[in-house]
Amino acid sequence: MSQIVHGGLDRAELERLGLRPESVLDFSSNVNPFGPPEGVVAAVRNAVDAFHLASYPDPSCWALRRRLAQVHRVDPERILVGNGSADLIHLAMQVLAPGRRVAVLGPTFGEYAHAARRAGAVLLSVAWPGWALSPQGDFHPADTSLDQVRAELETARPHLVVLCNPNNPTGDLLTAEAFTHLRRALPHTCWLLDLAYAAFADTPVSAPLDSRTVVLHSLTKDFALAGLRLGYLVGPQALVERLRSAQPPWNVNGLAQVAGLAALDHLAWRARTLTRLRVECARLRGDLARMGWHPRKTATHFFLLPVGDPGELRARLLRGGLLVRDASSFGLSGFVRIAARQAADNARLLAGLAQERASAGRRAPSPPGRPTALPSGDHP
Q1: What pTM did the predictor assign?
Q2: How far apart are CA 27 and CA 340, in angstroms?
Q3: How many Cα atoms sit within 13 Å of 268 on the Cβ side?
Q4: How far apart (Å, rounded) are the C-alpha atoms in residues 210 and 149?
Q5: What is the number of helices (H) and of strands (E) in the chain?
Q6: Ramachandran region of residue 345, left (φ > 0), alpha (ψ -120 to 50) or beta?
Q7: CB within 8 Å of 61: residues ≥ 6 apart
Q8: Distance between CA 236 and CA 212 in Å, rounded?
């Protein structure tokens, strides 16, 4: 079974191109570009000593679970920590999905479907509102309504539904009312709700903490801990116990646990930097629109940009030290995904895309389907 393509720097590719990783601005990764916080770096640095490196990490992540339980106001037994949220996605599928119907709302993160297939599930692809699925398995913008999605789920009657909210890579967001509307159609179905980007959203994102919802969170994205890998889930205690019993021992290394505890002391830093990031994203999208591109609307800090040949554009930009995400691996032909960075970095990307337009000698291609106008509030 082939591996899923992800964003981020490919060291072998950079070596072939003669590029140093630190010389490339990475717009393909959705990690907070303002982090990690200095306090987290200091905590990890202080833990790099002979005692910590020679000691096994706490297999239950008790201290981190207790702190997360305080944040979410739940019992620590309802929390399971993992080696990044992707690790927990695969774990959840191994426990919940074998031989069952699993519906994944797409286009979305590829690990959901990959993990479901590995677990022997019957995979059902359902398009998000505003998207449609072609017979060839590709997604394209459409006028699909929430009621149409609900009707499709009612017909499919899945045992498990996977939803990323806000959604990666589209930046679409389901309101709490919309999510409740879908859930009412499937009163006995379990939901795996991935809130990896909830803190990045421009409106609050909530999740029910009930007996049929497992909620995924990622500390990797918010606090820029991609090199350590750290995520967790919150769910009903009986189900969390089943997942914990299937989890490999010492699944989360000691330095990641130290970083997670330190990160939770910097929630104000997270709120402050992500507010700045949303402003930079709106400015970047506005500048792109004024240049003649058609960035799609988004509820978070990343967005889709329609282009002629995403693979070629990615390759040309990379040679200039700019990395964007070819969205073809999401089943989206003709799009790249761009995650906003700090202002100076975004200016370099704008210069690179301006050069692309000048080289092409024509306007950027219109998006598939109807062009999406920028909301008036997107121009800071």
Answers
A1: 0.91
A2: 7
A3: 2
A4: 23
A5: 14, 14
A6: alpha
A7: 81, 252, 257
A8: 7
Q: Count Cα atoms within 13 angstroms, Cβ side, for 202.
A: 18
**122 is written with which tokens?**
């019957």
The string of pLDDT tens digits covering residues 201-251 is 989 898 888 889 999 999 999 999 999 999 999 999 999 999 999 999 999
Expressed in angstroms, the distance from the first to the final Cα of the chain is 45
With tokens 């909620």, the residue in question is 215
Residue at 13: amino acid letter? E
Domains of the chain are: 11-30+268-378 (3.90.1150.10), 38-265 (3.40.640.10)
Residue 273 is encoded by which pair of tokens?
A: 């930097």
- Residue 91: CB atoms within 10 Å: 22
DSSP state of 304: E
Three-state DSSP state, 227: coil
* Cβ-contact 234, 72 below 8 angstroms: yes
Measured CA to CA, the distance from residue 339 to residue 284 in angstroms comes to: 10
Residue in the block written with tokens 């040309």: 316
